[in-house]
Amino acid sequence: MVTDAAEGLGVTRDALSDLLNGHGGVSPEMSIRLEEAGWSTADHWLRIQMQHDLWNARQRSAGIVVTPSTA
Prior knowledge:
4 helices, mainly alpha
């Protein structure tokens, strides 16, 4: 099934498998491929990716040190 989906999207099986298993993100190009396949819109896929990336950044936010601006 993954092989067929990857072929339909024009990507390698490994690339799609990495995405499905959380080892890779949805790139703008992949989001367009998913849209063209009829799997929602590219904007939808990119919003989901951005929310995921932000969630991960917040999990690591304790290590972020910022000096507030005085301007």
